[in-house]
Amino acid sequence: MKATQISIFLENKSGRLAAATQSVLEAGANMRALNIADTSDFGILRIMVENPDKVYEHLKNSGFTVKKTEVLALLIQDEPGALNKILGIFDRNNINLEYIYTFIGKDDSKAVIIARVRNHLEAETALIKEGTTPLSHEEVMRI
């Protein structure tokens, strides 16, 4: 299963984050998760939204530099050790984790891990083998 994340590249200037989130709002989407990574010159806003294709096109047409990325989305219990279980699967299977972030679902006993890995198919196979099935994009949006 795959989920789609949108990455928006932003100059480190006042108002750029607000302009990007305004554009997402104008596209009619609700951001379910977000993560910001930055350097001294630019930031990368990573978001999970209901309709990534529509949001991607709107952002692109609004002048933003944007990219769609396939990510793994994993449902875990919101409890101590749940993240470590997933990281252990990656470690045992030599899965290189590029980045990770999480969000709490509407049911506060669950959390969703968003993970970017180099080899998506290899990671998915290892996770399923160890009893964790990645979520589809649609499933992520319902959590």
Keywords:
alpha+beta; Alpha-Beta Plaits; 2 domains; 6 strands; 5 helices; 143 residues; VC0802-like
Per-chain topology:
Layout: E1 3-11, H1 16-26, E2 31-38, E3 42-49, H2 52-61, E4 65-77, H3 82-92, E5 97-104, E6 110-117, H4 120-129, H5 137-142
Antiparallel strand pairs: 1-3, 1-4, 2-3, 4-6, 5-6
| CATH topology (fold) name of the largest domain | Alpha-Beta Plaits
Structural class by sheet pairing and helices: alpha+beta
Tally of distinct domains: 2
Percentage of residues in strands: 35-45%
How far apart, in Å, are the first and last alpha carbons? 16 Å
Under the CATH scheme, the architecture of the largest domain is: 2-Layer Sandwich
3D structure, described in words:
This protein is α+β, with helices and mostly antiparallel strands and 143 residues long. It folds into 2 domains: 3-70, VC0802-like, CATH 3.30.2130; 71-142, ACT domain (Alpha-Beta Plaits), CATH 3.30.70.260. 34% of the residues lie in helices and 38% in strands. The chain is built from 5 helices and 6 strands. It has helices at residues 16-26, 52-61, 82-92, 120-129, 137-142; strands at residues 3-11, 31-38, 42-49, 65-77, 97-104, 110-117. Strands 2-3-1-4-6-5 form a 6-stranded antiparallel β-sheet, sandwiched between helices. The longest helix is centred in the first third of the chain and has 11 residues, at 16-26. The radius of gyration is 16 Å and the shape is globular. The model has no long low-confidence stretch (mean pLDDT 92).
